[in-house]
Amino acid sequence: MSTVEVRDLRKSFDGRVHAIDGVDLLTGEGEYLVLLGPSGCGKTTLLRTIAGLEQPTSGDVLIGGQIVTGLPPRARRIAMVFQSYALYPHKTVQANIVFPLRAEGVPPGEREEKARTAAEMLGIGHLLGRKPRQLSGGERQRVALARALVRDPTVFLLDEPLSNLDAKLRTSARDELKRFQQDIAATTIYVTHDQSEAMGLGDRIAVMSAGRVRQIGAPVEIYDDPADTFVATFIGSPPMNLVPHGEVLVGFRPEHLLPVENVSGERVTATLEVQRMEYLSGDRHVYGTVDLGDGPCRVIARLPATVETPIAVGERHDFAVPGARLRFFDAASGLRTEPVRLGA
Amino acid sequence: MDGLVVTDADRQRFARRHRMGRIALYVLAVLSALAAAGPFVWAAITTFKQDSDLYRRENNPFVFNELPTRDHLDLLLTGTGFATFAWNTLWVGVLVVLITLALSLPAAYSLARLDRPWAGRMGIAIFFVYLVPPTLLFLSLSRLVVGLGLQDSTWSLVVIYPTITVPVSVWLLIGFLKTIPKDIEEQAMVDGYSRVGAMVRVVAPLLFPGLVAVVVFAFTLTASEFIYALAFISPSSEKVISTGVPTELVRGDVFFWQSLQAAAVLVAVPIALVFNLFLDRFIAGFTQGAVKG
Amino acid sequence: MARSAPPAEAAATTREQRPVDLRRRGIADRDGVLSWLLLTPAVVYILALVGVPFVLAVAFSFSDVTGGDPSFDWVGLRNFERVFADPIFWRSLRNTFLFTAVSMLFIVIFGKVLANILIADFRGRWIVRFCVLLPWTTPVALSTITWLWLLDSVFSPIDWVLRQVGLIQSNMFWLGQPNLAMISVIAVHVWRLVPLAAVIMMAGLLSIPKDVQEQAAVDGAGYWRRMFEVTIPLTAPVIAISALFGAIFTFTDMTVVYVLTRGGPTNETQVLASWAFFKGIEGSDVAQGAAIALFLFPLLLAAAIAILRAVRRMEVS
Q1: pTM (two decimals)
Q2: Which of B20, B130, B136 to mutate to test the interface with C (most CBs of C within 10 A)?
Q3: Mean pLDDT of B237-253
Q4: Among all residues of chain C, which has the CA nearest to that of B199?
Q5: Residues A97 and A155 in one domain
Q6: If you ran DSSP here, which 8-state letter would residue A67 be given?
Q7: Chain A contact set for B1 (CB, 8 A)
Q8: Domains of chain C, residue spans
Q9: CB-nearest partner of B271 from C137, C140, C277
Q10: What CATH code is assigned to C86-316?
C-alpha cells in the first residue's frame, strides 16, 4: 500500500500564521494528486509536512496506512523533487543519482547498475560524468528524476518542478513528467500554482486557499462543478463569470455565454453591451456588461471560431446561457447553493 | 523500495534520537558560553573581592569569602588614569571612525557601483593591504610619527589607525552596497538626479544599517589596537585603554588585580553587546563582499 | 512602418517642448572621472601610510638606524647576519610557526562546532551569542590580562579547581614553565579567535541553499552523512578562509605574548612580532627590529593568495 493520508492537519508559524488550517486528505493507490492554489495558500507547507521537513502543530500524516508524524524525512522513504531540483553541486551526475542508494547501504556494484539504468531510462546516460552547473534546465530535471527513480519510490512528491523552466520548455517537460509518473506508478503529490498544469496532469486536484482545501475532485468536476466562488474563479482562463442576482451569484463559464441564436433548449437570456473584443488563437473574447436586475456587471464571453455572428464594439446583443450550465453561489459565503428561478 | 513499515520501536528510536540531539545542542551551547564568558564572569566577581580574600591561595576564587567591596572599582575610576584612558580611546575612536567613513565610503561606492574594469583588481589590492600587519610596519611608522612631530601624542593614533580600519571597511561596505539593488539608483537618475545625487539621496539611507555595522567594527578595531599605541605613546595622560590598563595599573611588581579585572569587564561588556546587535548584518556584509569579491 | 501614427506624433511634440539638458552633464555624472575621484583619497592615504612604511621597513633592515642615532647608512646584510646569529631569533621563528599551526587546528575544529551551535534554533541563543563574542570583541590586551591572573603561579583559579578535584597537588606554573607557557599562549589565541572563525563559518553555512540539505535529508542521509558529504564540501572555501584568518591573526600577533609572558620565561615564548618589538622599540635598534619583522611577510603573502583562491572557489559552486 502506498497511499498518503493527512488527518485534521494544522500548522501554524509563531502561533499566528495558520499555514495549514485543518486539512483532511486521502490519496488513492498510485494516484496523481495535484495541490493547486495561489502563493501563500499552504500547498507547499502541506507537501513539506507530508515529507517530514516541517512538523505539524497538530494532526497526523500517514503513509501506507501507518502514522509517520514525528518521523524524520529519511524514515518515510519518499522521493522528492524540489523547485530548484537541489542537485548536489559538488558531485557528478552519477554521484548525485547514487547518493540515496549509498544512504540506504546498497552495495557498490548494485548501485552503479541501478544508477546507469535510471539514467538510460531518462536519456541522460551520456551525462553521468558531468557536474550540475554544466547541464541545461531540462537535463537537470532529468537528473533529479533519475535520483528519485533509482529508489523505486512508492510515494513521490514534487514541489513546482516546472516553475524554473522557461515557457517553451515547460510543455515538453510536463509531458515527460506525466510519462515518468506512469512508468513508476507511484502515488504522486504535485504542487503547483499553474491551473493549466494542474488540469493537464492530475487524476484529482485539491484546490487550496488560506490553508484549507476548498474542493478536491477530478479536473472535469472541479471545472464544471466548483464548490465555491474561489474555485470557480481560480480555475479556467478566463475565469467563470459571476453576476449578482439578489442573494445569489449566478455563475457561468465564458464559453457557455453565446449569442442567443447559438443557444437552444432551456436557456437564460441577457443583453450584453459590448465594450471590448480580443482575438486569441481563433477565439473571440467579448468583454461587456449584462444586467440581471442588480445593476450592470462585467462579463466575458468566449466565442469559438465556429460562431460567426458579427459583433462590434459598442453594440448591444442578446446573449444566452444554457440553463444546465448555470451555477449558483451564495453571495455572502461564496458556497454553492440550490438553483434559483431566474426571470427568463 | 519495499512498502513502508513503521513500528513503534522505530518511532521511539527516532524520538529518542531527536531528544538526544536537542540535549547535546543545549549542553554544547552552555559549555561554549561558559568557556567563552567564564573568565569575564570570574573577573567581575574578582573586582569586588577584598585583598585579604583574593590573596589567599586556599580561598574559593568564585565566591565572596569576605564581604565584597567597591574600593577597587572606585580606585579604578578615580584613583588611576582609567578615566583618561577611556576618554582618549573614545575621542580617538570617534575621529578614526569619521576618517574611515570619509575614505572608505566613496572608495567602496566607486568599486561596487561604477563598473570600471579595474574594480576587481583594486578590490584584491585593498585586501592585500589589509594583510600587511602592524607588526611589520610599526617601526617605520614610529619613525614617521617622530618625523611628523606626533611622538608621544594621542593624535598619532588618529592619523595612523585608519590604515587598519579602511581596508576592511571598504571590503564590508562593498558587500553592503551589493545588497542594494541597482535599479533604485537608476530610477533616481532617470528621475533627474546626478550620480552623486542619487548616491546621497537614495543609497545612503538604505545603507544606513550597514554603515552602523561598519562603525561598530571600526571602533572595536581602534579600541583593541595595541602595538602602535604602545610604540608611539609613553606619557600616561596620552595613553588609551588598550595600553594604559596593562602598563599603568602596575606599580613595579604590584598588580592592582581587582582594578585590572574591573577594567577588562567594563570595556568588554558594552562592546560585545553592541556587536551582538549587529552580528546578522556583519554576516550579510561579509558573505556579499566575499562573493564576486 | 511598424508603429501606428499616434505614438510618433506624441513623442515628437514632447521632444520639442523639453530638449535634453546638455549642461547638466557635470562631474557628478561622468562615471569614469567620478570613480577615480572617489577612490583617490583612500588610495593616497593607504599608499602614504602603508606602502611607504613598508618600503621603509625593508630599507631599514639594510641600514644602521637606531633610536639614538637616526641617521641612515647602508650596511648591507650586516643586520641579517646579526639576526641569524642570535639563537633567540630562531626560537622566535620556530615559535611563530608552531603557535600558528597548532592554534589554527583548534580554531577550525572548535569554530566549526560553534558555528553549528550558533545556527541552530534554541532558547537563549542571544545570550550564548553574546557570551561567545566576548573573547573576540574585547581589546586583546584586556582579555589577556584576565588570563594573566587565571594562570598565575600562586593564585590561579584554574589550579584551585584542579586541586579541589584532586588532579594536582601543587600549582602548575602555567607561565613559568616553558612548555606550559607555550601551551598557555596557544590557548589564549584559540580562546580569542574561535568566535571569529565561528562567525565567518556561520556566514558560510547560512549561504548554502537550504533545499540541497533538505534534499539530502529526504534522500535518506542522516546527520553525519549530511554533514560530511554535503555541508562540509560546500562550505570548504569558507572554512579555509576562517582558518587562514585565524592563522594570520596568530602569526602576526605580538600582544598576547607581550602581555602574558613578555616573551618569557627567558625568551622561550618569543615570536617574530614580539621579538621585533623588543629589539626595535625597547632596545631601540630599529634596523634589527625591521630585519626580524620582515620575515613575517613571505608567509603572509602566501596566505593571502590562498585566501583569494578559496574565495574564487566559492563563487564557482
Answers
A1: 0.83
A2: B136
A3: 82
A4: C28
A5: yes
A6: E
A7: 77, 151-154
A8: 86-316
A9: C137
A10: 1.10.3720.10
